[in-house]
Amino acid sequence: MNKRETGGRYEKAAADYLSRQGYEIIRANYRCSQGEVDLICRQGGYLVFVEVKYRFGLSMGTPEEAVNWRKQERIRKVAAFYMYTFKLPEDTPCRFDVVSILGEDIKVIQNAF
């Protein structure tokens, strides 16, 4: 399995998990000139931009540690572009969550940044 296939597998697992937690999945793998975000959802009145990170083990650190400030900034820009493109009001309540998958354990970090 290559990196793209692995990523797709765990992004699907994350989407399924989030759906069971009450998230409504709007888009998967949204790409634009600013970059890409794994999932865009609605949950509890929020528009949620979700980054999914998977690690087999801890040798490279925890999955959430891979969402560094540079990645966070890119996701913010993608979110702003998405909101502009779809003419969403600037005061739309938004949140940035991270789904951390370590082995088979899935954890959601709401309002991660």
UniProtKB/TrEMBL annotation:
<dbReference type="InterPro" id="IPR003509">
    <property type="entry name" value="UPF0102_YraN-like"/>
</dbReference>
<dbReference type="Pfam" id="PF02021">
    <property type="entry name" value="UPF0102"/>
</dbReference>
<dbReference type="GO" id="GO:0003676">
    <property type="term" value="F:nucleic acid binding"/>
</dbReference>
<dbReference type="InterPro" id="IPR011856">
    <property type="entry name" value="tRNA_endonuc-like_dom_sf"/>
</dbReference>
<protein>
    <recommendedName>
        <fullName>UPF0102 protein FYJ39_01555</fullName>
    </recommendedName>
</protein>
<dbReference type="InterPro" id="IPR011335">
    <property type="entry name" value="Restrct_endonuc-II-like"/>
</dbReference>
<comment type="similarity">
    <text>Belongs to the UPF0102 family.</text>
</comment>
